[in-house]
Amino acid sequence: MSVLRLTRFVAADPQQVDEILAARAALIAAVRATTDSLTETKLARVDDETWLDVWRWESGEALDQVTAVAPNLPEAKAAFALVKDATVERYDLVDER
């Protein structure tokens, strides 16, 4: 069953949009270099400061494996250095049409 991981965050500096996007892209590339179970990502902007980042995984087990090592990735540290108030939620995808 696919799993969605949603991260809501606030830009530490709203003027750093380009840096946030570049750091996110580098993090996605680093994660994909470790696994092929990340099937898609989507980033939405709520307002000038708040963002929602949704990553879709093939399974909960795959997500668990990556989240065990991802905090140690330099790309994760760089990406999260640009944000504050990050919260994470996990959802099992039940229906899709």
From TrEMBL:
Top-level lineage group: Bacteria
UniProt-recorded name of the protein: Antibiotic biosynthesis monooxygenase
